[in-house]
UniProtKB/TrEMBL annotation, chain A:
A Gene Ontology cellular-component term: plasma membrane
Keyword tags: Cell membrane, Membrane, Transmembrane, Transmembrane helix
Entry protein name: Amino acid/amide ABC transporter membrane protein 2, HAAT family
Membrane-topology annotation of the record: Multi-pass membrane protein
Taxonomic lineage from the root: Bacteria, Pseudomonadati, Pseudomonadota, Alphaproteobacteria, Rhodobacterales
Organism: Sulfitobacter brevis
Residue ranges crossing the lipid bilayer per the database entry: 34-54, 60-79, 86-105, 111-133, 145-168, 195-213, 244-268, 280-306, 318-342, 362-383, 404-424
Signal peptide: none
Major localisation: membrane
Molecular function, one GO term: branched-chain amino acid transmembrane transporter activity
Ranges where the record places region Disordered: 1-23
Subcellular location: Cell membrane
Alphabetized PANTHER family for the sequence: ABC TRANSPORTER ATP-BINDING PROTEIN, HIGH-AFFINITY BRANCHED-CHAIN AMINO ACID TRANSPORT SYSTEM PERMEASE
Automatic annotation (TrEMBL), chain B:
Organism: Sulfitobacter brevis
Subcellular localization, as worded in the UniProt entry: Cell membrane
Transmembrane regions listed in the UniProt entry: 12-37, 49-73, 94-112, 139-160, 181-207, 213-231, 238-257, 284-307
Origin organism lineage: Bacteria, Pseudomonadati, Pseudomonadota, Alphaproteobacteria, Rhodobacterales
Cross-referenced Pfam families: BPD_transp_2
Main location group: membrane
One GO process term, biological-process aspect: amino acid transport
Alphabetical list of InterPro entries matching this protein: ABC_transp_permease, BCAA_transport_permease
Topology with respect to the bilayer: Multi-pass membrane protein
Protein name (Swiss-Prot/TrEMBL): Amino acid/amide ABC transporter membrane protein 1, HAAT family
Length: 443, 318
């Protein structure tokens, strides 16, 4: 029995802050094991049953690509989001891990004695080894110096991939065959579905490990060093070593992503190392949101979908992806995850219903306007670059002649009207948003 | 001896070209404290605009108008993009310029396609200025040298001798004080950004006919420009000049003299291993200087950042 007078800070029982499990909003704060475990269980179930929904091989390839990007983006966010270090050459660690795995695949005797399942660990170790070497001098400071060293080292290794043929295989890269590994409980990974489950298992394991890492003291200190290195130093922590640990851990998981890439595609080339790949992973991570652990996962899923699905529809997908990225940086620096998490207070206040109508009024016209704009862009592209005489084009399942005036008028009108309505209704949305974020009132 | 002279001139051209980009970039860095990844993209825009203008109005009007357009676009980017992102901190700013570089490349491909543009040296300058023992030096290279030196002197004069330059220098170091004295500091920043990008535009106009006008041209030069100002010291104009010339000469000389790693190693007393073709280090032994010429600047930068993080002429450590 607790003494009612001398309990927490001597407050009286009626003044004590307690949580009432009956209230949904307070239950969230208690961090019960149920709530902590639930997302992981759901993730495992989703990964288990996805192949039952999307059965064809191309869908499996997309999902594998997604899983690899998820691990890589999470590893990248260990640096960017959690430790505040901006790297422009992180593809190098994934690439080197992948190349190491390819070489292990080609060492016939050794490869035949290990199951394929543990191959990514070797990739991780090689990525980690390289990160230890580079990190020993690059993690001295964060910010611009770190970013520049990462760029320099990235360019160096990418350029040497064409020169050092023994390891990087020159321009044709290194290829191998995953099926020579020791069978894992009879599975030889001949089929795409088997590779899918291997990748999925690694996604869960690595994501869980990275999540747990962010909850360890060193993960927490990484946040402290990101926000205020001087203060962290006064507390007795070496900010350099904290950065180094984050960097090395990130290199390890990037290497795992590289190893999975090697298993999936059975070939690695210079493309896996170059600045473009490093830029893409930065884009993915930032698009998803660096502020939350699950941000890069959203980013990886969305980006892979944009990349694969949109690139089938249009040659201009990189242009749209770039515009989306720039819009994210300018208007939603929290990324997609930040955008989602903005709504948590609204739900806690129980006012989410107030937002539905304003959202419909603004976002649907805006979406239509953006689609109209995209149609204009496509038509301009077709007008400029299509072969002479080829005047027919198809946008949004409508085929028309891009050299006549009418389609331009229609697309222009749709764009202007859509964006105009969105602009007109935006103040209402803002008001509704403010109202929904205010406690009390007529709920 | 003659070859050395030719290489000196070639390196000078490359170095001065780099300097025109790095001068603007280093000014912008002193102002915002952030590297502008899209700087080389403005250089590319300069070349493409000049090409488009030269089709209609000729090379000389292109040289005049294209940098102006690029400068206006640059000022617009600062006013409506960077100033907005500035409130979120440095990392988003850096990422913004990175995204901008990607987008400009896509945009250029969208408008002009993926092929190289037939943007050529104007006929007036298409002759051999002089030749050194059989190696002819085209007049356009001499023209490039004169333009870049002229711009450097002009920039130096404006920055150190005029009232505007004084205010800019003061605004770079003590923006709040200058603001308190009644100057419009955001406008100055926008102006510096515009002028910096216009300089990159000039570089694009005069480099386009020589180095080729294609969508990858920003990417080729982009990271070298950062390397330059990091080596020279962030924010230092003289450092940018010295580093540009250094990189220009190093890469030119490395390309024209075939120095082999085997020769160097043998000279310092390491014997070539037998059965070189089976040796795991065989690629290292077979290295030649033209092979690594393009990555020498990166090696130099990493070394500088390790041993002298503020750069050759830099004062501050960021």
């Amino acid at each position: 029995m607790i003494d009612p007078v001398t309990d927490v800070k001597g407050a009286r029982p009626d003044e004590q802050i307690t949580t009432n499990p009956a209230d949904a909003s307070q239950r969230m704060r208690m961090q019960t094991p149920m709530i902590a475990v639930a997302p992981w269980v759901i993730a495992i179930l989703v990964l288990l049953f996805l192949p039952l929904v999307f059965t064809n091989n191309s869908a499996l390839t997309i999902m594998n690509q997604m899983s690899i990007t998820i691990i890589f983006a999470l590893a990248y966010n260990m640096l960017l989001g959690q430790a505040g270090m901006l790297s422009f050459g992180h593809a190098v660690y994934a690439g080197v891990g992948g190349f190491a795995c390819m070489h292990i695949m080609n060492m016939t005797d050794f490869f035949a004695s290990i199951p394929l399942v543990i191959l990514p660990i070797f990739g991780g170790l090689f990525g980690m080894g390289l990160a230890m070497i580079v990190g020993s001098f690059s993690t001295r400071s964060a910010g611009t110096v770190f970013a520049m060293i990462s760029l320099g080292v990235g360019e160096l290794i990418a350029a040497s991939s064409v020169i050092i043929v023994a390891f990087f295989g020159g321009e044709e890269g290194v290829s191998g065959d995953r099926t020579y590994a020791q069978p894992f409980f009879g599975v030889e990974f001949l089929q795409q579905i088997e590779v899918y489950y291997l990748t999925a298992a690694w996604v869960i394991v690595s994501a869980l490990l990275m999540f747990l890492w962010s909850r360890t003291p060193v993960g927490r200190m990484a946040n402290a060093v990101r926000d205020n290195p001087e203060r962290a130093e006064f507390l007795g922590y070496s900010s350099r070593w904290v950065r180094f640990y984050s960097f090395v851990a990130s290199g390890f998981f990037a290497g795992i992503a590289g190893g999975l890439f090697a298993i999936n595609y059975e070939i690695l080339t210079e493309e896996n190392l170059n600045t473009t790949s490093s830029g893409v992973i930065l884009l993915v991570t930032f698009l998803g949101g660096v502020g939350f652990f699950f941000g890069p996962i959203i980013g990886a899923v969305v980006f892979t979908l944009v990349q694969t699905v949109l690139s089938l529809q249009t040659e201009l997908w990189a242009f749209y992806a770039g515009s989306l990225f720039l819009a994210t940086v300018m208007f939603f620096p929290g990324g997609l995850a930040g955008l989602l998490m903005m709504h948590v207070p609204v739900f806690k206040l129980g006012k989410a219903g107030h937002l539905v109508m304003p959202y419909i009024k603004t976002l649907i016209p805006a979406a239509i306007g953006v689609l109209g704009l995209a149609a204009l862009v496509e038509m301009t592209f077709h007008y400029r670059h299509a072969a002479t005489g080829d005047n027919e084009m198809t946008v949004f399942w409508t085929t028309f002649d891009s050299h006549t005036l009418l389609p331009w008028l229609i697309a222009g009108a749709i764009t202007i009207i859509g964006l105009g309505i969105a602009r007109a209704t935006a103040p209402d949305l803002k008001e509704a948003w403010n109202e929904a974020n205010t406690a009390g009132g007529g709920a | 001896m003659d070859l050395i002279l030719v290489n000196l001139i070639d390196g000078l051209v490359t170095g001065l070209l780099l300097f025109m980009l790095s001068a603007g970039l280093t000014l912008i860095f002193s102002m915002m404290g952030v590297l502008n990844f899209a700087h080389a993209s403005f250089y590319m825009l300069g070349a493409y605009f000049a090409y488009q203008i030269s089709l209609a109005l000729g090379f000389w009007l292109g040289l005049l108008i294209a940098p102006l357009i690029v400068g206006v676009i640059g000022a617009g980017v600062e006013r409506y993009g960077l100033r907005r992102v500035h409130q979120y901190g440095h990392v988003p700013e850096l990422i913004f310029t990175f995204g901008l570089a990607l987008l400009i490349e896509e945009l250029v491909q969208f408008i002009w396609g993926k092929n190289q543009m037939p943007y050529n040296v104007p006929d007036v300058l298409n002759f051999t200025a002089f030749s050194i023992s059989g190696n002819s030096i085209p007049a356009f290279k001499v023209f490039m040298i004169f333009v870049s030196v002229g711009i450097f002197l002009g920039l130096l004069f404006v920055l150190t001798k005029t009232r505007v330059g004084m205010i800019i220098q003061a605004a770079l170091s003590y923006p709040r004080t200058v603001e308190a004295l009644g100057h419009n500091v955001p406008l100055i920043f926008m102006g510096v950004f515009g002028v910096g990008t216009a300089l990159a535009g000039v570089a694009g106009v005069i480099a386009g006919p020589v180095l080729g006008t294609f969508p990858g041209m920003a990417f080729v030069l982009g990271s070298i420009v950062f390397v330059t100002i990091v080596i020279g010291g962030l924010g230092s104009l003289w450092g940018a000049l010295v580093a540009s010339l250094l990189i220009g000469w190093i890469t030119t000389f490395a390309k024209s003299y075939n120095i082999e790693m085997e020769g160097i190693l043998n000279a310092i007393g390491i014997a070539t291993p037998e059965n070189l073709s089976d040796n795991p280090l065989r690629d290292f032994w077979a290295l030649t200087s033209p092979q690594i010429a393009d990555i020498l600047p990166y090696i130099l930068m990493v070394l500088i950042l390790i041993f002298r993080p503020q750069g050759l002429f830099g004062k501050r450590e960021s």
